[in-house]
Amino acid sequence: MREFAHINATTIEEAVSFLRECKGKARPIAGGTDLLGQMKDEILHKYPEAIVNIKTIPDLDHIREDNDTLKIGALSKLHDIATNPTVKATYTALAEAAQRAASPHIREMGTIGGNICQSNRCWYYWSPDNRFPCLRKGGKVCYAVAGENRDLHSIFGAVRIVTPSCSSNCPADTDTASYLSKIRDGELLEAAKILLDFNPLAAITGRVCPHFCERKCNRGEFDEPISIRSIERFLGDYIVENARQLIRPPEVESEKSVAIIGSGPAGLSAAYYLRRSGHRVTVFEKMEEPGGWLTYGIAPYRLPKSIVKKQINVLEGSGIQLKLGVAVDKDTRIKELMESFDAVFLACGAQRERTLGIEGEKLIISGLEFLKGFNSGAKEAPGRQVAVIGGGNSSLEVARVLLRMGAEAVIVYRRSEAEMPAMREEIEKAKEEGLKLDFLAQPVGVFKREGKTVLRCVRMKLRDLDDTGRPRPVPIEDTEFTTEFDVVIKAIGADQDTSYMPAEFLDETGAGQLKIDLSKYCLGKNLFAGGDFVTGQATVVEAIAAGRKAAVSIDRYLRGKATEAQNKEEKTLSLPEEFNSSCLKKMGRVKIPERSISERMKSMDVEDVLDLGMGDTQMEANRCFNCGCVAVNSSDIAPALIALDAKIKTTERVVEAKEFFEAGVDKTTVLADHEIVTEIQIPKPKDGTRSKFIKFAPRKSIDFPIVNCATVIEREEGVVKTARICLNAVYNIPYRVIEAEESIIGKPIDESTAECAANAAVTHACPLMKNAHKIQISKTLVKRTILACM
Known about the structure:
The chain is an alpha/beta fold. The protein folds into four domains: 5-122 and 632-787, Enolase-like, domain 1 (2-Layer Sandwich); 165-172 and 175-245 and 573-621, Orthogonal Bundle (Fumarate Reductase Iron-sulfur Protein, Chain B, domain 2), CATH 1.10.1060; 250-351 and 496-558, FAD/NAD(P)-binding domain, CATH 3.50.50; 355-494, FAD/NAD(P)-binding domain, CATH 3.50.50. 32% of the residues lie in helices and 20% in strands. It is built from 30 helices and 33 strands. The strands form nine sheets. Strands 9-8-7-10-23-22 form a six-stranded mixed beta sheet, sandwiched between helices. Strands 4-5-29-25-26 form a five-stranded antiparallel beta sheet. Strand 16 (441-449) and strand 17 form a beta hairpin. The longest helix is centred in the C-terminal third of the chain and has 19 residues, at 540-558.
């Protein structure tokens, strides 16, 4: 074992004080039957620097009745509880649970407080040397879901321990797993509502998003990632077609007004969320058509203009006003808007194309202007042989449009294909369509010769990583070469144009940089900004996310609340995340229908990729692991305390036993790092009440339960008046089976009643591939404990 400090506390106050000072780096210990084993085998991903022994604190091992309440000190040994006459006679289920916990030797050491605070059980979690950084240790994967999942795993679904990888890698933080769950159940309206909470333009992102979510999908380690973008497209189209049910004017108006400059993805996103919050929203757009880059920068074979128009029409239906052909490009105009509106949001996009800084650059055509012209109606190629400088999505967009115009296009890129920031599928499609790529070539000059545009380049080699995490290209001496083209186009990205911004909102360097609090999207006073106008050219989904987060800050400002920084928060829920066990079988992702190369090249306007149908969408959604933890709570004492309606007293509060247990990273209870259990309090059962605990384990002693069950039944005049039935080792936390309880109220206890309750107990069971046997065990224990209460 590693070294650690060891403190023998003499009082509760001393123990709490030390734990608080250590700020989560110390752990309390009583019997030590769980923690010391974890430390010895290097199971914990965070090794405690100190251990606070609370067993040296006096007067915490009492067992006594006081005013119709059984009070048990947290340090009371399991053996003493199991053999106590009062507990055996009146609180039978607890005595039986204590008697079945572990071995006689451990019962002599183990305490009731330690038993209810023990770690979850899962082979992967308990593997020595922390070989599996699972969800319960702050990792991103539950290894048991698709691995070995037998006795010590849940049959009632998973628990969301941390934000799933698909969500944490989505700039919009979309709760993908939740809306996929609704699609699996056929609840499209509910799925749409979840998606709208994160992204109001799903019909668009479902077509053009680089789907960061799919790249990190845990399913990819099993077979293939889920086709999230295709599912999002299906659901986005559903939202547009069913907008009257989903996107309506707000029920309550705030009487506050917001001006939004720019109708690109950031502006439209902010407009939707601000309007949903009840504010009057007016969007100003300098072009004749709304949509910004969505309309003028993306080719219709990827994003049809009809989709953009429908999506914007839907937003207008909620009461958002659009003012087209209105340029806000003077600082006086911005100040006027700040006076006329309660808040102003700048979502002007990235309008200033980056420069190469090479000789003759004026001879190069702007990629932004080329795409704008194409999307405004120009269909003729500017030349037969065209070079496109760049390796991002914009350069691919330009090149693929040129190919459809009949030109011969060549991408000139200074790194290799592996470093291209463009989406992989777009690169592959472009190559299929005839695009040539010249890698490791750095343009250094351009000049005219006999009517041709000559591009002068040098060859590059890749060295150490730069700030972007990609290999840094450096020139190779004596490798300069020239190539003739009809036209050279650059598409190397764009930055914001702040030339018209009031000086007070720019930094003091004179470089035209915005003086903005990025955590709040606030420039000062009532002026906010976001999207590409702040970051420079980014993806559509990043702009949408910025628009939503800015809308939150603006809404708080308008309501007079403090504008707080917005950070991602890890989600810790103890609610079941259900999935169909068929997702645990290896199966490839659904084949996305696409047009053939010949069909693609014939049209500028026909969409390359086709829709999934409802059947394929549900099938693909059903592949989702739901990425929750399927470990189980294996305390024998826990279900007995819940069935007996106990309360747990700590150094901070008194918690009902049913609320005490929680699944989280390094957590099985609601206890804070400095909080200690001091006493268990159990109300005396009413007359006519009997209780029973049964544990099923491979061996009578030592083993943790495969399933255990505690039942407490109060009868009156021969029928059940109240019932509390709790299973454990079947889920992340003790699992109270309400359906079984309700099924026996008002009925006599007999074989038929107990059988019905047993079936009701597993109503929501969704076992893994290898532990369906636990369903029958659970039914048997529920039935037997009920019959034992006759």
